[in-house]
Amino acid sequence: MIWIYKYQSPLGAVTMAARGNALIGLWFDGQKYFGATLTEDCEEKQLPVFHEAERWLNTYFKGVLPDFMPPIETGGTNFQREVWDILKTIPYGKTMTYGQIGAEIAKRRGLSSMSAQAVGSAVGRNPISILIPCHRVVGADGSLTGYAGGIEKKRALLTLEKAM
Fold this sequence. Notes:
This protein is of the alpha/beta class. Helices cover about 35% and strands about 20% of the residues. The strands form two sheets. It has a four-stranded mixed sheet, with helices on one face.
């Protein structure tokens, strides 16, 4: 069974999903790929992991990097998980380009290069927005591109982090 929980952020409604004790999804309502990990029946219920995620988000939206992380399970392909693991290393208030992520993956795999488009596809399918900071990924020229929650939300998140 997948459990869901609604959270009202300063940027709009957010839906969280969990299986057992781990968060498996967190999306702005209506964002691209919303609910992609919801592969079975869902029911609303308050779980400890939702309270932890809500506490994390409340801290984050006060402009402070939380010093804890609720348990998460991302699923996805090996490549997607590799990209999402790199996203988790982007410091609060900093950004990284799709090309830089591709170069890091290529280096780890002993390849000469990795497609920034492939990276972008994986970034866009990140199932746990904000906590896995896909909003910190920008275009090669620093432009705000490709955020599943919308460019205005991406801008707001980066402004909150003083990255812009």
